[in-house]
Amino acid sequence: MKDINKYRGVIPAFYACYDKTGAVSPQGAKALARHLIGKGVKGVYVGGSSGECIYQSVAERKAILEAVMEEAKGKITVIAHIACNNTADSAELAAHAEGCGVDAIAAIPPIYFHLPDYAIADYWNAMSAAAPHTEFVIYNIPQLAGTALTLPLLREMLKNLNVIAVKNSSMPVQDIQMFKDAGITARGEEGFAVFNGPDEQFVSGRMMGADGGIGGTYAVMPELFLKMNELVEQGQVAKARHVQYLADRIIYKMCEAHGNLYAVQKEILRRMYGLELGGVRPPLPNLIPADEAVVAAAQTMIQDAIGEIQAL
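Above: the chain's sequence. Below: its structure in token form.
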């Protein structure tokens, strides 16, 4: 029986880190890893959407993961997203991640071409075979990947004993219940995990059965998601819902900028903690001068919310 306890809790999606020239920054990645470890998160999810994986080379993704592992190995759970839009590069990243000692690898389905379930299963199983001693997380994000995880595909993947979890970023919380129930049926209560993906419904996802969450705004305000998780564990649903509303207002404010959401968050981290993580990689839009008001307002909202939740 596999132990899913290391996947229970708040796991920020790790941001892409760049230097002033736009090259990936291992130094920035180490600094962000140290920062998040200090905040008390359960783990980090490296190389996913927040890590701008589709705009980075295989070598760049390896460099960032290696930097994170230097700081995080043995201290927190590390899940490495290793999917590329071809099987060979994905398998190469899977083997590299296993060599680095990650807790799990993760993958979206192939994007662009709409493939049948058996082809997606072959793609995921090839990655898993390249990292045979490492657990595997299915990443379901149909609104971006163009392909949704189905129950028949999940049941097929559960034949692979390394498949330990689904990171579910579809919006219906019903999907969390369906995937969790399928995992329980195949593996028992303690043998399979589901992560809530949409940050705006962390509490809803946890109430529906998610064991934890992986999200792209956790890193800029981990205190709020840690408090939500704590309140859910305590059964204090009304208070957890209140903190969710605080976080959602901040997310909506950050999304008002011309620049990409991750550019806004990295600028807030620079201002609040001195973390130099760079901007975002084109074609993602970077901040423009008119975004100053949004960044400042969101930063104030985060600081005010952190102060407010201390009394809960």
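The first helix runs from residue 26 to 39.
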